[in-house]
Amino acid sequence: MIDTFLFDMGNVLVHFSHPRMCAQIASVCHGSAEEIHRLLFDLNWEHEFERGELTEAQFQARLENHFQRPLDLSALVLAASDIFTLNAPLVPILRALRRQGKRLVLLSNTSVSHIEFVRREFDVLGYFDDFVLSYEVGAMKPQPAIFEAALNKIQCPPERCFYTDDIEPYIEAGRGYGLQAEVFTTAESLTHQLASRGVIVN
């Protein structure tokens, strides 16, 4: 029997576009998308932000220092966050799990800017009972600290929790903690994964 479901956010609940993020931030900074990509991903600014090591204001200050120009914080936050689209076919699955009285917990590598944008723009986070967020925990999947935080939130033995994520190494890490875990590809495939465990959502 499965009591709790752990869901990733990016490319599970919502799809996102890193190229769009880089292009939009570049527009605010009057720079190039390639340069923004280098700062965020080659220099790991994005990961620092998602581990909670940078605040929005500190992120702004870094960009201002790099580009040697003042930047509007609200415009910068919007540029960095308006990159999501709802994965609509997943919503009926969440709704069905809630009707069945299942506990839903979000387990996500994310930043304060991104989670607040998703919370504001979509209703999907309203289905969740609790949240394990990298910027709050100070660790990112697949680091042990974030999975240990998740185990404290699921309120059941790990073998009675199902975890889905689009990144296979994270799924492998989850299995190492005793979770039932499967790679997410589509809502349809998730429906079959759940049905094989006796959970019917259609």
Annotated CATH topology of the largest domain:
Rossmann fold
Per DSSP, what share of the residues sits in E-state strands of 2 or more residues?
A: 5-15%
What is the name of the CATH architecture of the largest domain? 3-Layer(aba) Sandwich
**Alpha-beta content class:** alpha/beta
Name of the top-level CATH class of the largest domain: Alpha Beta
Biggest beta sheet summary: 5 strands, parallel
- Write down the domain tally: 2
Trace the largest sheet across and list its strands.
5-4-1-6-7
Share of helical residues: 40-55%
| CATH homologous superfamily annotation of the largest domain | HAD superfamily/HAD-like
Low-confidence segments, given as residue ranges, are none
Beginning-to-end CA distance, first to last residue? 18 Å
3D shape = elongated
Report the count of strand segments: 7
Structure annotation, total helices:
11
**Overall radius of gyration:** 18 Å
The SSE string, one letter per element, is: EEHHHHHEHEHEHHEHEH
Roughly what is the average pLDDT, rounded to an integer?
A: 98
Descriptive overview:
- The protein is of the alpha/beta class and 202 residues long.
- It folds into two domains: 4-15 and 86-195, HAD superfamily/HAD-like (Rossmann fold, 3-Layer(aba) Sandwich), CATH 3.40.50.1000; 18-81, no CATH class.
- Helix content is 50%, strand content 14%.
- The chain has eleven helices and seven strands.
- It has helices at residues 18-29, 33-42, 45-50, 56-67, 73-81, 91-99, 112-121, 134-137, 144-153, 168-176, 187-195; strands spanning 4-7, 14-16, 84-86, 103-108, 130-133, 161-165, 180-183.
- α7 (112-121) links the parallel β4 (103-108) and β5.
- α1 packs across α2 and α5 packs across α7.
- The longest helix is centred in the first third of the chain and has 12 residues, at 18-29.
- The model has no long low-confidence stretch (mean pLDDT 98).
